[in-house]
Structures are given as C-alpha cells and as structure tokens.
Amino acid sequence: MDGSLIVSNILNPPVLFFFLGMTAVLVKSDLEIPPPVPKLLSLYLLLAIGFKGGVELAKSGITQAVVLTLLAAMLMACFVPIYTFFILKLKLDNYDAAAIAATYGSISAVTFITASAFLTELGIDFDGYMVAALALMESPAIIIGLILVNLFTTDSDRDFAWSEVLQEAFLNSSVFLLVGSLLIGILTGEHGWQVMEPFTQGMFYGVLAFFLLDMGLVAARRIKDLQKTGVFLISFAILIPILNAGIGLSIAKFIGMPQGDALLFAVLCASASYIAVPAAMRLTVPEANPSLYVSTALAVTFPFNIIVGIPLYLYGIELLWR
Fold it and tell me: At what angle do helices 140-152 and 94-105 cross, to 10 degrees?
C-alpha cells in the first residue's frame, strides 16, 4: 500500500484535531467541550450530509445503480450482525455477543463523513445517494441484535417492549434528522443547495474538525476500558472491520460501483455504531456490558478506520478495479 495515502489522511486537518483531543487527555490538559456542543455539532453534520445527499439524489434520480446499492446496504446491515454474533459467542455470553454484533452491524456516520472528506481531498467523485445507504444501514442491526437475544437466551422474565425498540431503531434523532434532511434535499434540489450552501458546505470542514476534537477526547478516555475487553475483542475490533470492508468491496465490484462509492460503501460496512446502537442496547439488553461494546467501537475501530482503514480500503479498490 502507498504509505503516502496514510500520511495524507493523517495530515487532514479534521484527523489532526482528533489526535489533538487524544493528546489533551493523555497529557492531562483541562480541555473540555461543554456536553451540549458535541450534540449540536453532530446534528449539524447529519443535516449537512443528508441535505447534500438529497440534492445529489434529485440530480441522479432512482436508477438501477441506486437500487442495487441500497439493496447491497440492506444485505450487509443484516448479514454482519448475524455472522459476527456466532464468532463472538466463542468467548462471550449471548447478551454481550448480541450487543457487540449489533454495534458492528450498524454504522458510524462520522467515519462516513471523514471518508467523504478524504475522497474530496483526493479529487475522487462519489454519488450523493450513498447517504441513503448510510441511513438504511443504521437501524436493522438493532432489530437483528434483539432477535438474536430472544432466540439464544432462555430468560423467561425478559419482556421486550417492541414499540420502544422500533422507535429507537427508526425514529432516533440521528436517523430522523438524516432521512428528513435527505428528503428536503430531494424536494428542493439545486435551488435549495444554492440557498443553503454557505451553511451546509462553507462551514462543513470546520465543524467536522471541532467534532473530531471532541471524539479524540472521548476515545482517549475510553482507552482504559480496553483492559476489560482483552486481546480477543481488541483483535475483533480491528480484524472484523477489515473483513467487512473486503466483503463490501467484493459486492461493490460485482454490482459495478464506481471507486468513490465503493470506498464509502466499504467504510459503512467496516464501521461500528457508538451512538444509536449503544443507546438501544442499554435500553433493551441491560444484561450486556456497555464497556465492551462502546470501548471497542469507539477506542479501537473508530480511530483504526479514520487513520489506517480508509487508506487501506482505497488501496484494495485500486487493486480490484484495475
């Protein structure tokens, strides 16, 4: 692999701000970001990426490529939690295995956004409808995870409130805002883009850098939790994303995705949720240990993907697409 891709990715300002956040914790700086600010920044990023995706989808229309991509996204969102559950069961109980499988079956919007910035930096085009794939892949893993818990546990006292589960899966703030912004982008098209561009485009990289600064603070604080996960889960948190990206790239090649879309699809397959799924698992599977599924996704998989994974998956594309 061309090492310059990794260097170029690391020297991307938002990624450097991620390191700055980690450094602040490691040197015991008193740098703090007030709790409401990261929430506001994440809502902005979801609005901007959803709106841009909607505008691009309005331009392209519903083509065969769009339909195939969205079907592939749904396939991977259901397949990943099922197969990883049986791997995790080798070392963990059914509750922890289901919670972690659901975490890795879902996606990280911030990793997707960082990959989009990486492609823009390299001048590689990608289609806006990949945002629709992002929205589709966030929720199914929650449902699959709960089905696995029901199938493989014998606790007769468990009583799932499926209405709450479905509400958390499909109407949580991330999915609701992303899908809503996508629809507004489709409805308003190019005119809407011109009106919103100073907000959704001009501020985007600055907000992403600020958000990754906070992610660096949070990830560094979670590092000590890795002592509880052991070598098995740390290895899982690195190797499974690579495997999922490989499966994703094979599907992307088979259905003829262009390289930029293929990278974003691979990143979606390789990423893990650290917001929506943990929130749902805490609500519905309290027997599972949050320090396992949050720390592996946030302190291992997320930094691995944004530092090494994204350039690695692009290298795989360069080999497969020759």
Answer: 160
